[in-house]
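ok trying this again, last paste got cut off
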Amino acid sequence: MSSYANHFLTNVILRIDFVSGESQLKTELSNAVKEICIKHFPIAEEKKVEIKEFRISNNPDIQSTIINAEAALEWHFFGKNREKELCITASNIFVEFKAYSSFKEFKEPFWEVLSQLLITYPDIKLNRVGLRYIDQISMVGDKALRKSWVSYWTKYISAPLIQGLAFADDDASLTRQMSSIEMNYGDHMLRFQYGIHNEDYPAPNKKRVFILDTDIYAVGLFSLDDIDANLVIFHEKAKSWFERAIKDALRKKMGVIE
């Protein structure tokens, strides 16, 4: 599978949910965990939030009611340019990179924090892991003439993913065209969203930006080793879907590394 000198990744997100809220994390985060967080994410911020518990009614005419509400803290840590964020709450831990270089550099600091978190709070049980890659294929600076959106993107994107654009009856009036595919692989799920999102919606789309959004997740009761194995599978699966979604003209633009 190819590697590239450049890429169009704008967001890479990893999130792990806990079986039940860790009550201690509602009010404090140990110094041992904080020190590792700050080593990799030097800007630390605490945010006050309100956790609400609802009673859900089976009657659609009756609104859900709040049966409990309590104040809590969230622990946010950012890179020096806020190009990455790590967040720890009573119910989950997640990391997001907006300047992605490699899977190793993305995973390793998160893994160091997660390992220490589970040592410090051994009652935490992990029950959902998700890895998401969002590529914004941006050709904003391209001055080439464009006959239609489908004719433009057919050079770069696999044909089955742009057929919805061909169905539009007025190309100049297109405001958005997003589609999705969902897969059940047994031990994990995949949601693949693609198309023209258009940040200026509902104005007609003018920008040459095509989204490839791959979200892979699993639900269960996981050990650290389970999480590690899943992340390897998710990463390779996401790469496979991305490669099938693009054409050689886009690979050339990204610079294939042999």
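PB: full thing came through this time. The mean pLDDT is 91.
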